[in-house]
Amino acid sequence: MRSETALDQDRFPGTYRDAIAMVSDRAMPDPGRIVRAPLHLRAYELTTHDLPPGYQFEAWRTNFASILELNTPEDVTVGFGGKQVTWDLGCLAFSRIKTDALRFASLRGHTRRDSLDHWTLTMLLHGSVNTIAPTRTFEGGAGVVQVHSLGRTFEGTVTDSEMLTLFVPRDFSYEVTNTLSGAEFSTLDTGLGRLFSDFMIGLAKRLPAVEEVDLPALVAATRAMILACVSPSADHLDEAREPIARALIEKAHRIVQSRLFDPALRAETLRRELGVSRSRLYRLFQPFGGVTHYIQHRRLLDAHAALSDPNDQRRIIEIAEQRCFNDGTEFSRAFRREFGCSPTDVRSGQTARPPYRTTADVKAYAPEERFGALLRRLHG
Length: 380
What we know:
Layout: H1 16-22, E1 34-36, E2 42-47, H2 53-63, E3 68-70, E4 82-88, E5 93-99, E6 102-106, E7 119-126, E8 129-132, E9 137-140, E10 145-149, E11 155-158, E12 161-168, H3 174-183, E13 186-187, H4 191-206, H5 215-230, H6 234-239, H7 241-258, H8 267-274, H9 278-285, H10 291-308, H11 316-322, H12 328-339, H13 343-348, H14 359-362, H15 370-379
Antiparallel strand pairs: 1-2, 2-4, 3-6, 4-5, 5-12, 6-11, 7-10, 7-12, 8-9, 8-11, 10-13
């Protein structure tokens, strides 16, 4: 990630702020500049990559100066890679951060610039973080949520990493305050903790398209998920029922996609992977016609994509068998029920219409066809 370009001292005199000014007319903004997300949610972006190598780490350190002390690497002239996008959620903040390896520490009393006493819930997409707190030491790896308290003393190291971080102020909610106080400086390495990881991944995907009018519902769902996943109870789980259901469905989709070619993939397999009861699994997939139908639907979609690919010249029965259809007649019947055409029609190009389209693609249909296209997309 580090730049190999040596620092040209003659070309870039002065402080790192002078360097920022010199590249302010480039595509990436200087620290603190607001970038508007597509649908009006405020977002802030910082990247070090368009700065001269010798000034990159200083910009990164300044970016986090209100919450952390970052130790200077041995050689800053080789550059330091960092990128952060932060969405303003009103009473919460959510960041996607990519950073080179570094050492960090909480702010000491005499260096504290702001009264920031937030909690952070961080989930690494890759890399690891090791934290040393007064009462415990813990390490967080990819896929596991870590809870830090910025108002407490700690230090640690992070490898080259990419992470999602939710910032929760201490006065956000009395219940959340009590819940996170009991979990600070720990990892949520439980079934419900992993579900909160899935929730954060879904949040990162959706935030660029969230409108400000939807923020109250988003914040309420986030609060419910924190309470349910960090401090499970009957009341907390009931309050978080809808966001938990969405997270479970997304997790199920990833499991099914990763095991499309596995003939052992059945309802019971999915139930064990999700860690839910049979009745819960039934309720989750009832809108999709049941688990078996959902799995078959995903396999048929994948078969349609293979048959539409001009570079895939395998026999139709080979494509069907790879997706766990052992009978060619059964595959053809299921395919026709799903798409209204035969596998041969798709292979020969007699039907070019895909089984479902993105939202933007729906507009390409004739007006009278859009509702049906939308329903197919929703089902997929």
